[in-house]
Write the C-alpha cells for this entry.
Amino acid sequence: MKRIVCLTTIFVLITSSICMAQYGRRPARREPIFVPLEKLLLPEPDKIGTATLEQTLVSVVNTTAFSSEPLDLKLIGQLAWAGAGVLQKEQQAEAARPAIIQEMPIELYIIIPTGVYRYNPIIHGLEKNIEDDIRSRLSATAARGNLLDRAPCNIVVAGSSQRLAGKSHVDTTKLMHLQIGRAGQRIRLQAASLGLSLSEVTNFQQSQVKRLCGLAPNQVPVLIIATGFAPGVSATTIEKAPKSTSPGYSPKTALVVSIGDKFHDTQLFDTMDVLASGGVKTELVSWEAGIIKGMRDGTAEASASIEDVIVANYDAVVFIGGTGVRKYYENRLILDIVRQAANRGKVLAAIGRTPPVLANAGIMNGIRATSYYSQRRYLIDAGALFTANAVERDELIVTARDEKAASQFGRAIIDALARKSVSEPNELEQQTGRYDVKKPRIPQGW
C-alpha cells in the first residue's frame, strides 16, 4: 500500500513540475510571418517613355524633403517593375534562360501607409506582408536625418545569396550585391523619368528592418530608397510639364542666373530641384564659370559666364538672389538678358531681391509681382502691381517673395512653361543667335 502511495505522489509531483514549467516559460518573441495576406494586381507598366536616357540622367534628384502627396498604384507599379529588372512572365518561361537569372537573388518590399508589400514580378502585383504603417519605426532603425518616416513610399531592396548557391562559380554574396546595386540604379532612373525625387539609405540596422518588413529567413535588406514628390511638385504638375514622344524631342530648358557675389542656397537648390522634378533641364551661370559659393557654405558649378549667355537657347530665364545683388540692378549685361528674353517670349522669373532687375529692364508695367518687401519701391515705380504674396505669376513673368516660397516658385515656372507659346525668331536672330535689344518689343498679351 505504501508503495502505491509513494508512486502516486511521485507521479503528481512530476506532472505538477511539467505544468508549472510550461506555465512559467516566457513566450518566444513573435516575428512577422512571411505569408501574403492579400494580393493586389498593379496597372500595366508603361514600356515607352517620353525622355531619352541622357535627359533622365540629368533629372535624377536627391531630395531633402517630400510633399505629403501619396503615390498612386500606377507610379508604385512602374517603380517596382523597373527595380525588378523588367522581369516578364514570358521571359521566365524561356527554356534557354539561365537558371541564375530565373531565380532572382533580390526582392522588393514596398512600404506605404497601408502596410508592407512584397512585389511579385510574375503577376506584376503586390502581396501584403504586414498590415501596419511602419514608416516611423523604419526611420528609427536608420541614421538620424533620414526621410523614411516622411516619404510616401519606401522601397526595401533585399537579397539572398543562398538562392545563388551552387548555381555560379563566382562569389554569390558579391553577385547579390551587384544585383541590388543594379536594381537601385534602375529605380533611380525610373523615378527621375516620372518626375519623382528620392533619398537613399544604406546605414540602418538590418536585423530590425528584416523583422519589421517580415522578410524571409534567408533574406538580408541592403538598400532602402525613399521616394515621392518634392515639395511644391505634384502629379498634376508632372502632367502639365512639357513632354513629347517624338524622336527629336528635347526637354524645356531654364537658364538659372546667379547675380550675387554669393548665391542664396535655399533659393537656388530648392528651385532647381523642383524644376528638375518637373522635367525641366537647368543650366547655371554666374559672373565666372566654375565652382561658386553660397551664403550658407553651399557650392554649385556654373557652366558658363553671364557674358557668354545666348538667350535664344533657353525657354526660361530664372534669376536667383544672394549677397551683393543690388549693385547689379543696373548692370548692362543683366538688363540685356532680361530684354532679350522678353522680346523672344521666354518665361522670366525672379525671386527675393532680384525682381527689381525685371523692373529696371522696363518690362513690368501693369504686371502683378512680388519681392522682398524692402524692394517693393523698384516694382511700384516701374508700374508693377505689387502684392507682397509669396508667389505671383502674370502670364510669362513669375516672381517670388523669398526663399520660403522657392518650391512654389519652381512650380509656377513649370506651369508657365507648359502654357507658353514661343514666338518665332526673325531673320537676324536666326543668323546670329542674338537679338538687337535697342528697341525692346514686348510680346502680345503682356
User: Anything to note?
Assistant: The chain has two domains: 39-228, 235-432. Residues 235-432 form a domain with the Rossmann fold fold (CATH 3.40.50.880). Residues 18-37, 88-102, 244-249, 420-446 have pLDDT under 50 and may be disordered.
